[in-house]
Design goal:
The protein has about 210 residues and is an alpha+beta fold. The protein contains four helices and eleven strands; from the N terminus they run αααβββββαββββββ. The protein has helices at about 10-20, 25-55, 55-70, 130, and strands spanning about 70-75, 85-90, 95, 105-110, 115-125, 135-140, 140, 145-150, 155-160, 170-175, 200-209. Strands 1, 2, 3, 5, 8, 9 and 11 form a seven-stranded antiparallel β-sheet that branches.
């Protein structure tokens, strides 16, 4: 809305405009709301720019902790892109199946000031060759993967996350891609699970290389 003070060219005219606004409660309320929004937008934009230039004070300690302990992203933290609901194995540990599509994403804030060794822990696969077909992309770029597949234990998919400069608060996107997903009944006629499954993942562990 346009208010009288917009066209003021002198202090006297400004005082007259203020007097007019004071006599119009609705106009005064609109002015207050507009002022609050302007300040809020300015403050948010200023803080966003500062965080890009100067990492948060707590992030320095967070980087030190990451260098000591690493970071584990557990199944409940994977998000919903390409994952079925969280389940628990016989030991009570959480995991999630990839499906119904043969692709799933994990997005997380990860310190990227140093190379990071990543290990995806896979506790089961609908078929071994589907697990062997796995590909990993980091922010859209393919990663070189090393497969450690003992078969009767937790299978490990290892790859390296390269350093990245820029906004320390930007999330890193890990894309998991398989050749296909399959219904359990296709490999076991007694199975009653009608979902299309790929691999079952427990966590993603990240440690400085």
């Amino acid at each position: 809305a346009t208010h009288p003070y917009h066209a003021c060219e002198s202090v006297e005219e400004l005082l007259q405009a203020i007097d007019l606004i004071m006599r119009q409660p609705t106009a005064l309320s609109e002015l207050r709301q507009a002022s609050r929004k302007l300040f809020a937008d300015y403050y948010a934009d200023t803080m966003a720019q500062l965080q890009k230039i100067f990492p948060r004070a707590g992030s320095v300690g967070g980087m030190a902790q990451f260098e000591r302990e690493g970071l584990t992203i557990h199944a409940p933290q994977f998000g919903d892109q390409g994952w079925y609901m969280v389940e628990q194995d016989a030991s009570g540990q959480s995991f999630r199946w990839v499906g119904p599509d043969p692709a799933a994403d994990i997005a997380a804030k990860v310190p990227r000031h140093v190379p990071v060794t990543c290990t995806l822990s896979v506790i089961s696969a609908i078929q071994r060759d589907i697990l062997e077909s796995i590909q990993i992309e980091i922010d859209g770029m393919p990663a070189d993967v090393v497969l450690d597949l003992p078969g009767d234990d937790v299978n490990s998919i290892r790859f390296v996350l390269p350093p990245r400069h820029g906004d320390p608060n930007a999330k890193t996107k890990f894309a998991i891609k398989l050749r296909e997903t399959i219904m359990p009944a296709a490999v076991n006629q007694s199975a009653r699970d009608t979902r299309r499954l790929g691999i079952a993942v427990r966590n993603l562990v990240l440690r400085p290389a």
